[in-house]
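User: What would this chain look like folded?
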Amino acid sequence: MSSSDSAMLGEEGIPSSKYQVYSSRWILLLAVTLLNLANYSHWVAFASVAKQAAEYYQVSGPEVDLIPMISYGLCIPFCLLAVYVVERKGLRFGLLVGAWLTAIGGSFCCLATLPGVWGGQAWWSTSFSFKLTVVGQALTGMGCPFISCVPTKVSQNWFGEKERTLATLILGMSNPLGLVLGQLITPLMISNPTQVPLLNLVWFLPAIPGFLLTVGGVRTSLPPTPPSPSAATSKSAKRRPFLGTIMKLVKNKAFLVIFLFLGGAMGYISTLQTKLEQILCSRGYSDSLAGLAAALIIISGFVASFPLGYLSIKSGKLILITKCACIPAILALVVSTWMLIQPSLATWIVVICGILGICSLGIYPIMLELSVECTYPLDESVVTGLCYLSSAIQGSVLMFTENFFNNPLVREEDLAIQTCSASHGGEPVQSGMAAKDYTNYLIYINSYMIALIVIYVIFFNTDYKRAKENASGRLMTATSSEEEESEVFKNENVEEIISPVYVNLDKPAE
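Assistant: Here's the prediction, encoded as structure tokens.
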């Protein structure tokens, strides 16, 4: 028996009724949050200033798209590896792999353009600098699944029942929060191509404390004692073979629906974050507006997740809350299909992006909790990792199929207002972004998302398996405590009855 297993048992192998949390759980939460912020902010930063990046590296729009897309695309093959490593080798080992890959990849990107931060001469050609940046992003993409698959594992095994949803919310929303920082701050920093080296330096910085906290602060995969009955039960149970866990999930209808819906929703958000700047510049909007609209999707979802999470804790109606959020989401998707291709609607674009964020990302932490509820007691990292894999697959498909649905702008009035290239008005552009008509592409991705919502609303239902285990564990603990108290009381009475009575014979009776 491993030390982590034996720590969950009492002196005679009986499950302990004492559930405890440890202060080191906050170090773990902070480390995972910082690594996620660094990974996602750097990934989306290039998409938010695609024109400037294309001019700096002297490449075309599709080529500069390779920087964020290779990071996202590599999540697919490495996601299964990350799930296997975390499930077999433990949480700490998986986080160390993710932290090292994130730190090395970020340092490569930083090194590629470092002299340019101070206006110095490049150490190598622009072509080599671009290739080194792509390699750096590829490494961070490899490390991302090792970090993104652990939120529910951390919250389940380190946090008590009353803290668990909050921990899942913070860890789960650190991914989109990183997207916010990358989308919102990068356009404010990078106003011309010569400032691109600053991008690689700034978004490398959050990875440093995250890396140091992981290496120096995360000392074990599991706490000495479990924080809840469900954590104690799942970890004291015999571990299944990895393929056996996968087969159990494949046969779980509720999980398959979440796998499709949650993965599709996150893939859609990632696609919109990557493509929004290109979509809006084709209609004459500035980079700042595109960054604000993309950031508002995440900010509104992040803010909405707190009251929705609190409501789910108090009511316990996770399924009802998520399905109610799907109705306005469909309306927002329909409206955004038309609105994002119209010029001179800046205010309404910001509003519709905010509504999309509330209806999609607002329920993201609740969906993560639901994925664990319907699959308990299977390993949480496998469940979350497969949902992340679904997100990477569907997001990559939505991104890579863009070229099948867009068309070049042909109308003179559209070419006159577009802001995608440094020279517009119909003049040829040798490098930088090319303005396109994204009408068909928006119809395609929004229709896809609406179809997934309909599938979820109609077909998803599940028992709250983990919640039932916690309730059962609390009942057993309370019953055990009552029996112990009753036994103590009984023994005290027996002692009182059979205790000898000493009579002082020298003292006359009264």
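The two ends are 68 Å apart (CA to CA). If you want, I can go into more detail on any region.
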